[in-house]
Amino acid sequence: MTKRLRLLLGGNWIAEATEYIVEGRQTARLPLSAFKPVLDFTNTTMADIHGGNEKLSPRAVKMVNDDPNAQDVEVDLSLVDAWQEVELPYKNPFAEQNHQVVVLPTARRITVSYQGKQVASTSSAFACFEIGSKPYPLRLYIPNKDVNMEHLSATDTTSHCPFKGNAEYYAIDDKKDLAWYYKSPLQAVRDLKNTICFYVEKPGFNVHVECGDIPYPSEGFGYTN
Predict the structure, then answer these.
(1) What integer is the mean pLDDT of 161-177?
(2) pLDDT tens string 31-69
(3) Which end of the chain is less congested by CB atoms within 10 angstroms, N or C?
């Protein structure tokens, strides 16, 4: 089965490849030709990436083995917003409901604090983009292993999402229902298993995303209906 890799930056898909290697969720190797015209080479082996109004620092893209004649480049995935890897052809599982949900890994360092205490820090989060009949906020799901669970306690609250599954909730320091998780997420969003999401818009939260906010894609998620 053929797979496709796409890189997201500044709300734009800046590269797309079917021949690539992703190493440890931190680095991707793909052909130089996979990029749209967004590379700005600062010397013979390194380039900046441009995406929307964003410009990344040098060393975001590096020619393989520092060879200026190489046809492949290495990309530091912590310097793009997120990336998508899907099997082709990929059908939108929610097409009939006019609803789209996509979960993309991001290697950016994300830190979440509540009332001055750090409750999570990770470079292995998942960005959940959701588009339907109403606007949905971007949600960042953090692996359980990167959450300070001593601050969390389970509550008896539950909810159901037809696109993601049944959610259960956590309190933080006795403040009820400030985080949630899907114990058995639906297959289309299976990457949410063993992750936790925080109600970061509620008072007391502070979120820092390395290299700036992660915007919604300015065009579709790559589905075929």
Answers:
(1) 94
(2) 988 887 666 666 666 666 665 555 555 456 777 777 777
(3) N
- Pairwise CA distance, residues 26 & 39, whole Å: 19
What is the structure's pLDDT at 186? 93
Q: What region, left, alpha or beta, does residue 11 occupy, with left being phi > 0 and alpha being psi -120 to 50 degrees?
A: left
Half-sphere CA count of 118, side-chain side, radius 13 A = 8
The CATH class that applies to domain 98-209 reads mainly beta
Reported confidence tier of residue 123, pLDDT bands at 50, 70, 90: very high
- Cβ pair 204, 175 in contact under 8 A: yes
Tell me the pLDDT tens digit for each residue of 173-208.
889 999 999 999 999 899 999 999 999 999 999 999
Classify burial at 211, counting beta carbons within 10 Å of its beta carbon; exposed 0-12, middle 13-18, buried 19 or more: middle
Handedness of CA 148, 149, 152, 155 (dihedral sign): positive
At 166, the amino acid letter reads N
Residue with the two structure tokens 């040098």: 58
| pTM (predicted TM-score) | 0.85
Entry field: residues in the chain: 225
Of the candidates 46, 47, 28, 45, the residue with the CA atom closest to the CA atom of residue 37:
47
Intra-chain end-to-end CA distance of the chain, in Å: 18
Q: Would you list the domain boundaries of the chain?
A: 3-85, 98-209
